[in-house]
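Incident log, support desk, overnight shift.

02:14 A customer reports that sequence design results differ from what the structure should imply. Their input is reproduced verbatim below. On-call engineer (initials T.W.) acknowledged and began investigating.
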């Protein structure tokens, strides 16, 4: 393969534009002999004759014209590469890979991506659903650049591998059957539900969150049914089979879009047959964080995604 030396190709292009070795040397702050030497070296590397004497001037050969046609394409591509690299350095281009748990995707990640598409269309965000343990494995191995998780299931702030950014304190409301005796009870507290049958997952983060919240309110929840799928939980609550804690961020993300039910005093809109109540006094919350590999948080593209996630978290409805 021929040696296409960019510096020498630029000298050839300048000679083509200005017509003489002297003018080329002046434009490039070189001596005429240095210009001639560089072009001789280029001709030797490419294996073709580039210049022919024409009186006191030189003329570019047909081979030189062919070389320049391809060189112009190379120069144009390099200009595009420079522009794209500059955009990357400014955080306006490139790709950021995000690992996030399921309810965070519609509530936080999607709004952040929509805003970035509007403000920085050259910046691509690739989303991968992953719960905490998997998300941090992906982050540590470099398969994602940012992980969204609940603080309770993230590595500690002292972990040297990651930097954590607090995003949101997400309140937990309670879902009751619409005809439940406490559905319209003013000032409903979590402790008031100590004797109720509960619906939550048999294992995993949501099981731990429900159990911890109830224990903090002074009781151990009786698990009547085990389910992790929200449509199954709604159906069982509506059928009067039990009560369940519901993350408000998940409701904002659309898990309640099965038909809107009425809201009792102190309540929020929920699926048909379900009364979704805001708890008083001891309302539990789950804390959502973003984590990146320590030291990477200053990367411009990643910083823009973090800023968009903060903006999406700040736009959540205020707590009631």
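02:41 Re-run completed on a clean worker. Output:
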């Amino acid at each position: 393969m021929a040696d296409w030396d960019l510096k020498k190709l630029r000298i050839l292009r300048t000679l083509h534009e200005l017509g003489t070795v002297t003018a080329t040397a002046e434009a490039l702050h070189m001596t005429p002999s240095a210009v001639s030497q560089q072009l001789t070296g280029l001709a030797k590397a490419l294996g073709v004759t580039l210049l022919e004497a024409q009186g006191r001037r030189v003329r570019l050969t047909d081979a030189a014209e062919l070389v320049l046609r391809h060189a112009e394409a190379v120069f144009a591509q390099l200009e595009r590469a420079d522009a794209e690299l500059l955009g990357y350095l400014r955080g306006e281009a490139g790709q950021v890979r995000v690992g996030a748990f399921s309810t965070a995707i519609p509530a936080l990640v999607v709004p952040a991506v929509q805003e970035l598409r509007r403000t920085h269309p050259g910046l691509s965000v690739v989303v991968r659903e992953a719960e905490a343990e998997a998300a941090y494995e992906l982050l540590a191995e470099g398969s994602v650049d940012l992980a969204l998780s609940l603080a309770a299931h993230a590595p500690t702030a002292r972990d040297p591998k990651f930097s954590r950014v607090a995003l949101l304190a997400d309140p937990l409301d309670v879902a009751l059957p619409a005809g439940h005796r406490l559905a319209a009870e003013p000032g409903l507290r979590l402790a008031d539900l100590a004797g109720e049958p509960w619906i939550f997952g048999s294992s995993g983060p949501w099981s731990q969150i429900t159990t911890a919240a109830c224990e903090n309110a002074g009781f151990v929840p009786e698990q009547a049914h085990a389910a992790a799928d929200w449509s199954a939980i709604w159906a069982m609550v509506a059928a009067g089979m039990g009560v369940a804690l519901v993350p408000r961020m998940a409701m904002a993300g659309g898990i309640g879009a099965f038909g809107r039910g009425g809201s009792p005093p102190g309540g929020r809109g929920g699926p048909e047959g379900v009364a979704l109540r805001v708890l008083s006094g001891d309302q539990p919350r789950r804390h959502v964080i973003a984590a990146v590999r320590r030291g990477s948080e200053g990367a411009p593209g990643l910083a823009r995604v973090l800023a968009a996630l903060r903006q999406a978290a700040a736009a959540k409805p205020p707590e009631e």
